[in-house]
């Protein structure tokens, strides 16, 4: 039986519970529509929050447009914006416990997992504050007739849209870069996870961000589409499914709005024939189904040499079979529930398809028998998987991993690349340079050797249908900038210095 020790009334501010943040103020939604939040660990509703209508979306966009066109933010120096970002980061740091608890309440992330990854938000704001204070927003190059000044202008009003699974960390990549660049933003929080972005708004307010620079509404897909379609929005930064990413890309193409897309994945872990079993399992297993597999970079296809297939299947299945599934609020729980009934139905559907298509279940395989409430599924491993099977091709977004056998290294690389996705990957070997050589052959945006790492100063993003553009690092800042070149003649009179 799971608990639910999260009382919204005592843990969250009244503004966060019932209002949107627009133009520097907490405003009542114009809509009457509300949505119920359901605790994944119990299946019971625990809050009801407002959803935006098109009028709320329009107000948020108007505020961001005015702040961009006439407000101080885009005109400040990088150093001035950095100071504000640092104050926001400090305000966020003081709310880490609340933000972690929100994550567990909204989507059932186990507390150890939420505690570990919530600090990503301050790390990203701190990183972009540092970058903003040193970045060359302007440079001069000589030309035949004089010089050109290249100005890295903020791209304008931006719509930031992130999914329910890891709302705060994903948002912080976008927000840090957008604000560092001098953009103004409208955050559209998803109906499943409304609180994270509204707490960020509290922090922006506390940090003294000028009115209209950051606006937060909670809205469904239809109102999200209304936001994306608005001509006052210059750029959309979207993280979510590949299907929605394609819809958004088409809408943006209509008016050439800039767009960055972080989409789905079906990442492969290649275990080379010289990889030692136990260190490989220790480094790989946590990334195969982190947060019940509801993370885009989960290593959901494990490729093992045919000669070691049985050894690996037995050992990996034993590790997964021993994971403690349970109440996400219990610090000893390793795997919590899925986020929603929709997720549960989806994952059980894929398990059934895997079975029908002839893959062999070595552990798990259904709804968790220990829980009669909540959205618990057994961590599941399929062996004997071939790359034409649905479970090897489609993103399941649940604790379901496929093991595929390969004959030689070329076959392993071909299997890894035999997917429409290209987000992440890992290679395991006792020879790091051999692993590196293999990593370079994987058509994916991020590949790690003997583990999995992500760092604020390193670009993250996908090849192929895993996305377009990059977040993180200077590449992530560039995604919120437009290069403007201004040519000046050499011998014209000047009264002021550049
Ligand atoms: P989703 O595409 O259904 O929704 C994502 C967000 O888009 C939500 O806020 C939703 O309200 C909004 N939305 C939906 N339709 C829209 C439209 N037409 N216009 C504007 N907004 C719209 O995805 P999801 O189910 O919430 O999230 C899971 C997916 O996200 C998985 O595919 C996962 O791989 C992907 N993801 C990718 C990354 C990455 O960095 N590449 C990170 C996390 C999750």
UniProtKB/TrEMBL annotation:
Q: Which keywords accompany this UniProt record?
A: Oxidoreductase
Q: Could you tell me which residue ranges the Aldehyde dehydrogenase domain spans?
A: 26-485
SUPFAM superfamilies per the record?
A: ALDH-like
Offer one Pfam family short name for this entry: Aldedh
Active-site residues, Swiss-Prot/TrEMBL: 262
Any one GO molecular function term: oxidoreductase activity, acting on the aldehyde or oxo group of donors, NAD or NADP as acceptor
Q: Which family does it belong to?
A: Belongs to the aldehyde dehydrogenase family.
Name of the protein in question? Aldehyde dehydrogenase
> What organism does the record attribute this protein to?
Pandoraea terrigena
